[in-house]
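Researcher: Next sequence.
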Amino acid sequence: MKNLLKKIAVMALLSAVMISCSKKNDISTDPETETTQNQKVLAYIKNLGFTDAQIVDSGDNYVVDGDIVFNKKMEVPADYGKAITEQYYNGYIVTNSNNIRVKIDPSITSMTSEINSAINQWNTVPNSKIKFVITTGTVYDILIKVDNTIGGSTCGQAYLSTSNGKAGNTVWINQALIQNNSFAQRTRTITHEFGHTISFKHTNQSTTTNVPGVGGTDAQSLMNGGQCGSGATVLSAKDKQATAVLYPL
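Model: Next structure:
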């Protein structure tokens, strides 16, 4: 009888271990783990200066301040709680800033001229090493494509640069919304979204602090948010100055 009871106890223990292991390994379907990850991402976003009112849950992503996108599965930087004292940006510089490869998705080839014009704005900033290049290959840093489901008055969306030195890897353009805008305004939308991919936040975000030596407000900044179809169409003097500070030659 004792041996039988021992066997039953061992079998029960093994069963419990197997169930425990299967739950631990199946992270993707564990609601508790998913909730914890979402909370970490939300805490990181708020640390960047965004408020609850600016954060929208959009399925797999959080969309912030209208067009800045954070994936819920993103790797949250371990040092995100440290104070950031620079304006316009999230604290993470793109490592290969002199060769940022842009892939044009077939959905947006009709706007290739606007894309090239936007790239030219960033590539010609004085005293900056920023250089976007168009690639047709399978290896790229940023994919730009159409997404007409963004909705509302949002012209486009983009991921911010990441803590591992990579550019935000996707730009979405609401082509249906901006197709009747002027060429300059369509270019403005793309230029603005590329700015997010290299770490720039919205200049008119009230909680944002200063890039060293580039303080004050800037009504002419192309990186001002909430100006779809009506904002500045060229990088302002301060936009260029901030770019040169963050990405100097």
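Model: The chain has one domain: 31-246. The domain at 31-246 is CATH 3.40.390.10 (Collagenase (Catalytic Domain)).
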